[in-house]
């Protein structure tokens, strides 16, 4: 008991007893956790000594196919001559690759559709210019 304390003796004793119980409970919980960990480590050690190790399956087939898939995303070297002379993989006018043009054709948006749209725009422009000349 401290002399500086204004608390009665029975309160101080109860506080000490409560703290003691709390510390004991925490220690018991820690010992229980340690016991579980030790048991798990012992089981692992015995399994290792018996040679019953199981390893995760390696994904070698998947890794190889993923490497092959990456090659499809590699860009071709840029060649400004193809822009001027037309491209071997696509159209210099449209600016799309051959694969893209092929897909657009399947979807009905191919080069013929692009040309038709361009012609419609040109026709509208000609009509607009013709009307503006008539009004003058």
Key descriptive features of the protein:
136 residues; mainly alpha; 68% helix
Query: What is the number of strand segments?
Result: 0
Structural class based on helices, strands and sheet pairing: mainly alpha
The description of the largest β-sheet is: none
**Helical percentage:** 55-70%
Determine the N-to-C terminus distance. Answer: 113 Å
Tally of helical segments:
5
Shape: elongated
Order of H and E elements: HHHHH
How much strand? under 5%
The value of Rg in angstroms is 41 Å
Could you characterize the architecture of this molecule?
The protein is elongated and about 105 Å long. The N and C termini lie far apart (113 Å). Among the domains are: 8-52; 90-136. The chain has helices at 9-50, 60-70, 80-85, 98-106, 111-135. It contains five helices and no strands. Residues 87-91 have low confidence and may be disordered. 0% of the residues are buried. With 136 residues, the protein is an all-alpha fold.
